[in-house]
Amino acid sequence: MARSYTLYNLRIILVLTFGSLTFGYSFSVISNTLGQPGFLQYFNLNTNAADTNAITGAINGLYCAGAIFGALLTGWMCEARGRKIAMYLASAISILGGALQTGSVNIAMFLVARFITGWGIGMMVVLIPIYQSEISPPSARGFLVGQHGTWIVFGYALAGWSLDPGIPSMAYV
What we know:
By secondary structure, this protein is mostly helical. The protein is built from seven helices and no strands. The chain has a single domain (7-160), classed as MFS general substrate transporter like domains (Growth Hormone, Chain: A), CATH 1.20.1250. It has helices at residues 7-33, 37-42, 49-81, 83-102, 107-135, 141-145, 147-160. Helix 3 (49-81) runs parallel beside helix 5. The model has no long low-confidence stretch (mean pLDDT 87).
């Protein structure tokens, strides 16, 4: 059977999958980060086990809460402003959240940044398959939209990947 999609369709799909990769990576990389002694020491989390457990739970919970808000906002945003504008906004929010996480000077700032990142990523995880399905020809829609999930899993794998078993993760190189 002949290919029913063009290279143009495939290029757009592959560019969109960077958002899927970002979702998988940012959701998974925190598990490696929370185990790093330098992270715990920087935010003074290793002094009280109960407080540390509550804060690490909040780090994951706020990310997921942000993703829920982002996903819920996406439906309205797509109808009000269009899918491309919503995707631009989701990208900007994700970049802002990632930058704030990277530059966090205290745990409160890091928690807020995780929420913001989750918000942008929640928008992306809803927007990407919608847009992929709209630009895919019907005969190849399953293959092209399926790239979304494939790249999410690749993002998860990338977050924990290491060339040397002695190196905890590539995220810290």
